[in-house]
Structure prediction request, 310 residues.
Amino acid sequence: MGLINNINKAFDHRIRLGIMSILMVNEYAEFTTLKELLEATDGNLASHLKALEKAEYISVQKQFVGRKPNTKYIITDLGKLEFKKHIDALEKLIKRT
Amino acid sequence: MKDKDYLNDITEIKEMMNKSSRFISLSGLSGVLAGIYALIGAYLAYNAIEDYKSSLLINYNYITIKHLAYINLEIYLVTVALAVVLLATLTGIILTRIKAKKHNAKMWDATSRRLLINFLIPLVTGGFFSLVLIQRNFVSLTAATMLIFYGLACINASKFTFRDIKYLGLVQLILGLICTQFVGYGLYFWAFGFGVMHIVYGAIMYFKYDRTK
Prediction:
């Protein structure tokens, strides 16, 4: 069934869904902002970010603000496209019942 | 499959999109109070202007007295206006801080910064433009100008907080445009826009968002 195919396994977790949602509506988000919004631990959040980065749905920008490292996450065009497909698929699945 | 999970997912997505891009700790009650301050200010201004008018009738011969009275009136009106703005801002900050604390949100973060900047750009422009109008002796248009620019500021800010603020902005904008055609009634339009409309809007916001939580 075509509908199920569009359900993207890469987004099949609350944290990943959250990361993508935040990055969809913001130019970028910092690690600390994501952490606060998603109420996740450092390690947990980092591993989900890594997975999304590997799939090339998000890109990472590492900078130094003064001496503090500062990491920015930005959604890629591919990420936007895939996430939109994912939302569409979810909505269709809900409407079907 | 599990439809309930999908519905949860969608809700979660929406919530995260809103939470991360919109500042939702704005207090409705502070809108009501700002409106009350504005009405009190407008009442004080109205009385001062009436006093000034009647003093003109008595002292119509004495140009220096007239001039002095005019300067006094100007100082008084500016003081009242500043007091209203200051009180409204202060109340807004305090009540917003309380509301942010209530649902564990920060008052000063990326969303509130963005909201403030986008609100202030049209507002400050309007403020300076109003001063220029006074400088060029177009005093009769200042009330309309304030309403119009405040309306634009609200509409601009609506992208970064509750969407409802857009309708407040539209009402102010329309009031301002109508006001341009009724020279001499600026204070009434001002009192209605900044006073009554703030109370109405603040009350709607309070019942819609604040009380349920």
The CA atoms of residues 42 and 164 of chain B lie 26 Å apart. Chain B has a mean pLDDT of 90. The two ends of chain B are 33 Å apart (CA to CA). Chain B touches chain A at residues 1, 3, 6-7, 9-10, 12-14, 16-17, 19-21, 106, 109-110 (CB under 8 Å).
